[in-house]
Amino acid sequence: SLTGSQRWWKKYNDPTLDKLIKRSREANPNIRIARARISESWYQRSVLAAAWYPHAEFNARDEHGLGSFDSSGVKWDFDSSHGQQANLDVGWEIDLFGRVERQVESATAEYEAKIEGYRDALVFINSEVALHYIAYRTLEKRIAVAEEATDNFTKIKNMIDTRFADGIATKLEQHESNADLITSEAEIPRLQQEKKVISNRLAALLAMRPAEVPQLLKSNSKIPSPPQLINTGFPAEILRSRPDIRRAERKVAAQSARIGVATANFYPQLSLSGAISYEYFRQGVNIETLTRTLGLGPSVKWRIFNACADRNRVREQESKLNQAITLYEGTVINAVTQVENSMTRLHYSKKRHQLLDKATDEYFEAVQLMDDAYQTGQVDLRRLLNAQQDYIRTKDESIATQGRHSAHSVRLFKALGGGELPQPTSTAATN
Predict the structure, then answer these.
(1) What is the dihedral of CA 127, 130, 131, 132, to 10 degrees?
(2) Which of 9, 25, 64, 152 is the most buried (most CB within 10 A)?
(3) pLDDT tens digit sequence for 361-391
(4) Strand partners, 276
(5) Cα of 78 vs its chain's centroid, Å
(6) CA-to-CA distance for 367 and 369, rounded, in angstroms?
(7) pLDDT tens, residue by residue, 61-114
(8) How many CB atoms lie within 10 A of CB 415?
(9) Greatest CA span in the chain, whole angstroms?
(10) Which of 260, 254, 312 is nearest to 111 (CA)?
């Protein structure tokens, strides 16, 4: 079954966007690093959890003498001595006061925080890919508008040149029409530069060569349309939906457990230990040492006096806990603000785009009428050129606003923590 994030992107009905999101989840270096950090944290926890079980250590040596030396030199005498030693030490710390348990508890919370960090990285990278893809498509549309403007101003210039040859237009009108044509042409390289920069950023996010991105994106040219209806849930749902909030909560849990670790230092550490020892040493034909021993017994370690160091360590960990709680509260406040701002921008950008679309249609009709009026001498060239500029400027801003509207929906995805929230009673619309 699809995850909430995958269902979200499917609502854009853009196969290319789906392909980019899928590749970013698999290839982006930051996501791969976040995934590796989960494994690292699990093994760190496993190292601490091993203290619950007995441990054993074996040491042995077998040494043969080669001779002796004094001020006169070395006197070789192979097998002049022979020594053997073997020790098997076994120990087990009995966790009476919860020191090991609290260490494992803290490590477990850190491991869970790393999982949420990975999910947060997924949300962030997916959002960045979608935002850059939308910007790329928006620039394609804006470049098309700039090319349309160049074509329109070229037609006006050709008309003025013809009228000038017939003695109807003036030299001033020739210069004005040519200046507007050059200005419209100059807009195209600027937009192409922005498009290339966006393409390079996409390549970095997808771990691809920059030359591969245009080939990947050429199959579609529309700006992705955001979902019409988006479940935004209740404010309390954000606490369960956002990975950064869950990660901050796990950080609080980990720091709380560290207070327990520091507190356990007030109490003795009780261990059971045992050993099997074997030692043999021969000098010439004489056996000087030969031991075979077995040992088993408890051991106690208790720091009776350390100038209040343990007490201060507890206070240090309590201060860190206060910091973690404050950070958690700040993350929650920031999350609610992001959701509200994203919903507000999404709502008003859609209204603005609808109005600009209507204004573009009106300007288009005005341009057609102005062109006829100029050729019949009812208006001057400046009014015709201004009408064309107003039409192009409004159409360009309409497309840019459409791109911003789609981008705001991506930011809402990010603010919600990676997809729609469960909402059993009502559904919020984006319009």
Answers:
(1) 120
(2) 9
(3) 999 999 999 988 988 888 889 999 999 999 9
(4) 88, 294
(5) 67
(6) 5
(7) 999 888 888 878 888 888 788 899 999 999 988 888 888 999 999 999 999 999
(8) 24
(9) 131
(10) 254
Question: Under 8 Å CB-to-CB from 323, ≥6 apart: which residues?
Answer: none
Task: Answer whether 66's CB lies under 8 Å from 269's CB.
Answer: no
Residue 187 scores a pLDDT above 50:
yes
Q: To the nearest 10°, the Cα dihedral for 413, 416, 419, 422?
A: -140
* Rounded distance between C-alpha atoms, residue 354 and residue 398, angstroms: 8
DSSP one-letter code for 166: T
Q: What is the pTM of this model?
A: 0.84
Q: Which of 270, 242, 289, 255 is nearest to 81 (CA)?
A: 289
- With H, G, I as helix, E, B as strand and everything else as coil, classify residue 84: strand
Residue 165 CA: distances (Å) to CA of 104, 153, 371, 372: 90, 18, 19, 20
Count other C-beta atoms under 10 Å from residue 253's C-beta. Answer: 17
Distance CA 427, CA 413 (A): 15
Mean pLDDT of 348-360: 96
Enter the tokens of residue 252.
């609080």
Q: Which H or E element spans position 61?
A: strand 55-64
296-333 tens-digit pLDDT? 888 888 888 776 888 999 999 999 999 999 999 999 99
Tokens 């290319």 label which residue?
16
- Give CA–CA dist 329/335, Å, rounded: 10
C-alpha distances in Å from residue 97, one per residue of 43, 101, 106, 266: 24, 9, 16, 9
3-class DSSP state of 222: coil
Cα 412 from Cα 429, distance rounded (Å): 13
Task: Write down how long the chain is.
Answer: 431
For residue 290, what are the β-bridge partners?
Answer: 280
